[in-house]
Description:
Elements: E1 9-16, H1 28-31, H2 41-54, E2 59-66, H3 77-85, E3 89-97, E4 103-110, E5 116-121, E6 130-137, E7 142-149, H4 154-167, E8 173-179, H5 184-188, H6 191-196, E9 218-222, E10 228-233, E11 244-249, H7 252-266
Helix pairs in contact: 2-3
Amino acid sequence: MSRAAAPSDLSVLSFNMQVGVGTKRYREYVTRGWRHVLPSQGVRDNLSRIADLLGAHDIIGLQEIDAGSRRSRYQNQIQSLAEQAGFAYWRVQVNRDLGRVAQHGLGLISRYQPFSVTEHKLPGRLPGRGALVARFGSPAHALTVVVTHLSLGAGSRTQQLAAICEMVADDEHVIVMGDTNCSAHDLLADPALAASGLRVYDRLLPTFPSWRPRRGIDHILTSASLPVHRAGVIETMLSDHRPVEMQIGLPRELGQALARRDSAATG
């Protein structure tokens, strides 16, 4: 088998998918609230539409997923999405294990096989927040991707951002993506984030609520080594959030490491 071509960039996507409920207006928080606890054909149909959306990207971070409970008909939503969209790799981190009621957490879907994946619980006033950390390429030339969903409270978010920055302090090439529950302005003011060198995309990308987005609370942060070629919000209402996407340039050595790993995984 010939070696895979080294990618020069990556398309990444972050999406709070609201376990597929698909809220399209405020009143549906009440009228469709039952979909958070009971199975629904509407959710299954919406998940198929989400799978169609994912196919144009390389690495995807998903928040508010269900890993297999009554409301998802005991189906791991991330495994199902990955299979429908034709991706080679997926991983789930369950942060709120409510047994048959809900297996709530984070998901990673990727065209590339990571060489390391770790799960982390994040500090905060209430439990249930985490970070899923995947490293791609090789230890010598690694891309570190963090998928997370931060707390609503500012104090807890500060602790969580500090913990994430510590996790990636020794990594050169880093992408952090997720629902941060705060604006880019708030992220820029965070002391740990400022000291880390991670960059906040400074143009407004409103993602919430999906039917009339006014707040940009879903973000993709990058290290200085990864140039951002393009960023935007996808205009869709598959959740109460809209997805945010970014085209990111790769240093040559990192692209080659990704290609070698990909060839080894598929060869």
